[in-house]
Amino acid sequence: MDEPLELFGEFGNPSFLDLLRRRSPDLLPRLAVEPGSEPVRAPHGTTVLALRYRDGVIMAGDRQATEGFQV
Predict the structure, then answer these.
(1) How far apart are the first and last CA of the chain?
(2) Residue 46 bears catalytic tag
(3) Which residue among 46, 48, 69, 71 is the active-site one?
(4) Model confidence pLDDT, tens digit, residues 33-65
């Protein structure tokens, strides 16, 4: 990525994977599949919380759902 990521932009949706697909597709994980096979459907889920206050911003994310219920 040569240019800094915009803090406030029109990304269309809250998907981090969609953002990576547009900005840095080389950072996406690659799964080896046989030609003609169906793509692997991986479960996903994310909780994101962002708070803006006078001195800045706090952001937190929880990707626990991507690993089932294991942390």
Answers:
(1) 30
(2) yes
(3) 46
(4) 677 777 666 666 677 788 999 999 998 877 655
